[in-house]
Each structure stands twice: as structure tokens, then as C-alpha cells.
Amino acid sequence: MIKLRTILILTFTSFVILTTTIIGSLLSNRSAVRLQNEIGQSLSSIAYQMSDKLDSFMWSRAGEVEILASMMEMEQTQDVAKTQKSLDQLKASFPSFSWVGFMDEQGEVLAATDGILVGTNIAERPVFKEGINGKFIGDVHEGVLLSKLLPNPTGEPLQFVDISLPVQGKAGTTIGVLAAHLSWEWSKEVQRTILEPQKDHIKDLELFIISKADSTVLLGPENMVGKKLNISSVTEGQKGENDWEIEEWPNGKSYLTGYAYGDGYLNYEGLGWTVLVRQPTDVAFSSMSQMMNSFIFIGIIASIVFATIGWFLAESISRPIRGITAAANQLRSGRNVTIPEYKRFSEIHSLSTSLRSLVESLSRSESALGDMKLLAEKDQLTGLPNRIALERYLEETIEHLDMTFETLAFMYIDLDGFKKVNDTLGHQVGDLLLQKVAQRLLMVTKPGNITVRLGGDEFLLILRSSQADSYQESLDLAEEIITLMNKPFIVDFNHVSIGCSIGVAFYPLHDPNVGNIIRIADECLYRSKQSGRNRVTFYDEHQEDQNES
Fold this sequence. Notes:
Structural class: alpha+beta
Distance between the termini: 89 Å
Radius of gyration: 33 Å
Number of strands: 18
Shape: flat
Largest sheet: 6 strands, antiparallel
């Protein structure tokens, strides 16, 4: 005959697993739907931002060409030299203009930036044929004449967007056409400004611009540019919709795809580009898988706990068990009920109370796990990112760092005079001072960069910039930090004055190992201290070689 204790163990173990499964399924399904919608809406929002920026940029450039044409009409002059100067000024102010030219009513180019095509008749080109009749903005196309004349270091086919419009004379007659070719490269810069801020928290994003005429990919991964893309999100986008969906792409993979339609900006009607932002579904919904694993783990722990409790129960508690089981069945049916509380027996009372807590803890588990992750990456005193956050930042940033054009400046910061504050005013004032220092450092930390507290009064600020501007940007930032630190602090009603010394080294210029870069920046900091403090020292390889010799 089976013992009661064995029956109770099996019963309670099955009951807890069933309850956890029911509640976990309900909560996870609701959370999954909400989370899926939030992620989809975020991709749609990114696509809309890109679409809006594209149309805004085209509106601005078209407006600049219109202003120049109006000025030419107001001046009512045929001075080619003066026209040439105006064209050169426009290109100098807006480098996205690859070529700007003025041609007479017969199509002969009279003046053009860099003298390109001057004296050439382009009457058969669309930019003239359309522009002579009114304002014309053409879609993206490969250059025919200009591709052979403009600089092209990459060797890739040059693509342009055309803007042209007629220029009127004194009598209101058309005296010529003002035309401009916008390099399509500007779209990649717009793409970078949209995607760059997202890389730290949204991985594997890809952005596409699709033409309205034939659904051709104008911007996207290199292997897809110029190819037609016939998927549902393109069709919906071209209807003017801004939304998202999960769909299979031509490569056979499933993506979460956000889309938006470019319907113009102000008085600019737009070219009807559709912007897509896609992310692999397994990456997009990875947080949902983690949530499900958490529910399973909690269910296993709960099963063990309540199986142990069941070992000590007696036959007299069978009725309360049936009551609890009935409540669980109601939960399974979708009703919002509370596990009944039984006070007659202390064991049953503990069981019912624990089950009630389990329901509540499962509801809070998703947010609690997220809070724990955030706390693990923060310095408890200052709230700045700590070394754990620094490692994650470096892993994600270096993975996407273009080492041909970009660099990371490691700025090692140490406070001057901090020990004196601790010795004279006490550690409590010192801790408050560190918090205020952290607030000032955050003021100069831009998106994409990071400021970390390494320990004590030492901090590390990493600045991401182009190699051409890295030294000047680092110098300007270092001087700004020193100025901020030199301003007095009021800490616990004490007037405190400190300074700071900074050492700077560049990755990967000075070393391909980030650990060595931090060490080099620390050595530069030491030189700042030796040189009188309150200053910045950059790593000088030539000077380092001399010191070693």
C-alpha cells in the first residue's frame, strides 16, 4: 500500500508544477505580446526617423537651389564669373552637392563647380529636359557623364539625386536652367546617425531605402543594392503605412521588419522612398526566451520546496489541498482568483501563504531580473558605470569600430587634492565630493561615449571619434574637464577646491590591446602628476622610446 507521505509528495510536486506552468504561461504570453509590440514599434520608429531625415534633407537642398536661382533672377545679370562664384560658394557650404551648374536655354553649360562640363551641351540629359519645364527632383541614379569626371577613390559606381529648375529673365522668359547633382553618399551618413545610437541596446539592425518606381534597393547591404525587393513590408510601406511585421526575406531568414513611407516634408512632396529597418527574429526576441527560462527555473525551485513541505503533512490536510487545487483550476481557466489561506494548521497556512507569494513573485520576476542586471553594472557610490559595464561597452563598441577611420581615446582621470579633502574633512565629505565629480563628468559625456569609475578618485572616460579629429577633440574635452574640476564644490556646506590630472592614449593607434591602452593612459596620467598636476598628457611614442633608452 502506498504511504500517505508519498502520495502527498507526488501530489504537491505535480500541483506546484501545474500552477507554475499555468501562471507562467499566462504572464509570459501577455508579456511576450506586449514586448513583441514594443520591439516592433521601436523598429518602425527608427524607420520613420530615417524617412523624415531623408525628406528633410532633400527639402533643405532643394530650397538652397531655389534660393540661388531666385538670387540669379533678381540680379538679372549674365556675368558668368559671378555665377561661377555663387555655384562654388554653394558647394563649399554644402559638400553633399557633387556638382552644380548653370546652362543656357539651349543646354550648354556656362558655369559649373570645378569647371566640370563647362562648354558641354547636356540638352538631352533628364536634368536639363525636365528642369527647363519646371522644378524637377529626380530619383537615385548612376552618373553617366559625371562618374568619369568626379573623384572616386573607392571605385564604386557613383550615384546621384538630381535637382533642377528654370531661371527666368527680365521679361519672364526662361534664360537657362540651374541644376545640381547630390551625391547619394549623404544617405549613408544619415543612416549612420540613425543607427549609431541604437547599437548599444539594439543589435544586428540593418536599414534599407527602397525606390517607389520599381522597388529597387537604393541603400542597404552591399549584396542587395540595385536588386528588387518584393516583400510584404515594401508593399505596405508604399501604401503610406508606418508599421511593422514579422516576415521571411528572400534569403530564407525570418526578420522583424519596421517600415515607414517618405511622404515629403513641408512643401517638398518627396520621392516616395520606403525605409525598412530589420532585425533577425531570434535576436529581437532573445529577451522573451530569457523570460521563459526564468519562469521554468522558478517553477523547478518551487516544486522542490513544496515537495519537501508535503513530506511533513498528514491526512487531515487533504481537504485544504482540494481547496487550493480548485483555485489553481480556476487560474488555469483564466479567472483572476487568490489562493485561499488556511490557518487551522501551521503547515497548510505556510503552504497557502507561499503559493500566494509565488503568484506575486512570478508577476514581478521580469522587472526584478532587469533591475538586478542594471545594479550589477553600476558603481554603488557614484551611480557611474563600473568595470563590468566597461567590459560590455568595449566588447560592443570595438566589434563595430571602423579602425580605418575611427579611434577610441582612453582618458584616465585622477583628482588632485582629493586625499587632503578626506584627511581634513572626513570620508563622508569625500564620498559626497566623488558623487558631485561624477555628475560633472556626466555633463561632458556624449551619447556613444562612457565614463567609468575605476575606484577611489580614479575615472576613465572613453571618447569615440574619427582618427582625423581624435587628438583635437580629446584635447578640447580634457581642457573642459579640468575647467569643470577647478570650479569650487560646496559639499556638506564646505567650500572644496580640487583639480584633476589626465592621461590620454588612443586605441588601436598606440596598442591593439585595450588592457595595455589603459596602462599607457595611466602612465601618461602619472606624467601629468609629475609635471605639476592639473593638466593633460598625451602618449608620445617617440618620447617613450627615448625614456626607455
